[in-house]
Amino acid sequence: TGAEPTTSEFTVIMHGPKLKTIEGIVMAADSARSFSPLEKFGQNFLEKLIGIEVPHKLLERVTFVDTPGIIENRKQQERGYPFNDVCQWFIDRADLIFVVFDPTKLDVGLELEMLFRQLKGRESQIRIILNKADSLATQELMRVYGALFWSLAPLINVTEPPRVYVSSFWPHEYHPDTHKDLFLKEEISLLEDLNQVIENRMENKIAFIRQHAIRVRIHALLVDRYLQTYKDKMTFFSDGELVFRDIVEDPDKFFIFKSILAKTNVSKFDLPNREAYKDFFGINPITSFKLLSQQCSYMGGCFLDKIEKAITRELPDLLGSIGLGKKP
């Protein structure tokens, strides 16, 4: 609420019988709260994690996480913990992501660019909030609204931009001589949007699992193709490291990605970045993988067939059963 960033913690707002603050170390130690995986980010981070229990009906259905503000002139290591990795952990579990802007601070720098890169593929879950709108005159507000879209356009590369809510989201009266009716409607729209997401949570979760399964399938096919190419190129006298480096440096020479598009129902827009596989195989040696054809058993079937069945039949059927009002 101030001119400077006023929170440096990840604050989790959740339901509880009475107003109560819980330390991050306690939250991570309590397996019932599902925050224990956060221990992997270290004690420095846990000191920056805080939970607040509030006896509010809305919180029976949803939990809010308030992340620290973006500080563009600050290096990530100065925070003392991996900020982007922690954000990614929460992003992966979020149903809705609000990106809140102050009209006096619309600068887009490296930290915000990195955050939007992490949000790629989740554009449908993003909502933009232009807060403190009643602190501006009408003409100035229009100018700021336009500047916000101008700044965000290169970061959100989708045909339909995210919804932008313009209001002053606090319990006090709006400033006089401002668009009170508009601000109130925007506030109501935001709550309706939030409620809709809560109502559709099951459908959204299944759709996301299916989307993730498609990515897993593509990744499995690509690794399999890299491995098959490596085995084909290896001879008794070959240097395995040199052979594989040649494949990773120029996968197009060996038709790695094109062969996936040609043989399977994979969209070229779903293919991951070629450069990402240099890093991937730097951590995971190609020799540690088995071909997909070798990962089949008489009783268990094939891994890839199971994923295919989930994508094409099981998950769509599950979505359909919810649409018909059946309990899945």
TrEMBL record:
It comes from the Eukaryota. One of its GO terms (cellular component) is sarcoplasmic reticulum lumen. InterPro entries: Dynamin_N, G_DYNAMIN_dom, P-loop_NTPase, TRAFAC_Dynamin-like_GTPase. The keyword Glycoprotein applies. Residues 1-207 form the Dynamin-type G domain. Keywords: Glycoprotein, Membrane, Sarcoplasmic reticulum, Signal. Its main location: other. One of its GO terms (molecular function) is GTP binding. It is a peripheral membrane protein. The keyword Oxidoreductase does not apply. It is found in: Sarcoplasmic reticulum lumen; Sarcoplasmic reticulum membrane. It holds the Pfam family Dynamin_N. The gene is Srl. This is Sarcalumenin.
